[in-house]
Amino acid sequence: MLKLCFFTLLSVYIEPSVQLDLSSIPTGGQIPLDDLWEMGKETYFEGDYATSIKILEKALVTYRMMRHVDIACNRKCLNANINKDLPDLDFTKYNDLFVLGNLVAEANCRKLCIEEHPYGVSAQHRPSAKVIEAFQLRQPYDFLQFSYFKTNLIKQACQAVQTYYQAHLQDQSTLNNIDYYKTLDNVTDADFKDLEATKFYKYFVAGVDAYTVKNYKEVVANIEKALTEYFVDHEECELLCYQPFSHTHFRRFYRALAGQYMDYLGCCLSCQDKLNPVVSGYPVQKVVARCYAYLQFAYYQLGKVQMAAPCAAAGLLLNPDDVDAQKNMKFYMESASQNNLSASVHLGPRADAVKFHKHLTDMLQMQKECNEVFDDGDEGTVDEIEDLSSEHVENDVLSDLNEQIMKRIEDRLQNI
């Protein structure tokens, strides 16, 4: 179990001695995101709404650039391997050393990727966690919607307030603002657009709208695209969970690495909630299973039963407690012979659903196993009597590392 956690740490981003950064390139007068955010709020509270708009819009662009770098470099370096950088080192007997080497290789890969990326910058421009959270919660749009209103940019105000509302459904003042804007001349429902909506969201809403009017061809076309985009969004959400390693607790080295990885797991497992779309003011839960439910019914209505059945099985796989999914699957199994459904081909879930389900299941299992091995009981204290096995492992690893380094130095000296 311990080895499983450590080997999966290959994907953890550990910060090297040189601080790494994933924000946008400083070109000339580039202003860090933290400063833009503070300046935007300051000018807003001073009543300089036109200037506040310019600054906050620039901050949003900077934030999107930073996310682009995060995703690109994390994807590129996900499978970094120490053997590629140091092919002459033999890690056969040193599994733990190999894991740590991969962590260093991954960090180095990201450092180089960021430096070479058109949007990459130096470490001092990396925004604080507090500012990143503010942008994740779409707080700039709350300032922008009022600033747009005060500068008579009503259409933009409608878009900004709708964008903010999508992440703050219970905010009554936001609802009041939306109701007020709807009373203004020349304002229509079409003006209330979510500026942060993904392709998945747009296709999903279009598919639901088509389902409402029983246009099943459009349901299939849009929901299939929505699923494809959702899997991309989910992957990118997980890639954004990789963060620079930082010591915030007094822990042993291995336990600190495991804690960092467990934070990463928790972040990844929250991606489903983060990606749940909000339709007509209500968040859609288990949206992937819902997509398969729409598809199975639409395919069935189009007479494509052999395509409908695997969608029904996929929906049941991802939401086994859904009574409707259970009934649908039972129907397809009972009518298999008359619809020429093969148990091995048509009555199993679609491959994309199986892959997604396995990925989530593996992460949940890893989280469970890591939780069983590690806890936070050692933070801040050092007991006089304790299990020193992890300390011995660390000492062994450092000893192995030192031995290999010394050997390489000796080899170089002999060749001089």
SSE blueprint:
Elements: H1 2-8, H2 33-45, H3 49-76, H4 82-85, H5 95-116, H6 129-136, H7 139-150, H8 154-165, H9 172-182, H10 199-212, H11 216-239, H12 253-269, H13 271-275, E1 278-279, E2 282-283, H14 287-301, H15 305-318, H16 323-334, H17 351-373, H18 389-414
Antiparallel strand pairs: 1-2
Helix pairs in contact: 2-3, 3-5, 3-7, 7-8, 8-9, 10-11, 11-14, 12-17, 14-15, 15-16
Would you give an account of this structure?
This protein folds into 3 domains: 2-136, no CATH class; 139-195, no CATH class; 200-373, no CATH class. It has helices spanning 2-8, 33-45, 49-76, 82-85, 95-116, 129-136, 139-150, 154-165, 172-182, 199-212, 216-239, 253-269, 271-275, 287-301, 305-318, 323-334, 351-373, 389-414; strands at residues 278-279, 282-283. The two termini are 46 Å apart. The chain is built from 18 helices and 2 strands. A two-stranded antiparallel ribbon has the order 1-2. Helix 2 packs antiparallel against helix 3 and helix 3 packs across helix 5.
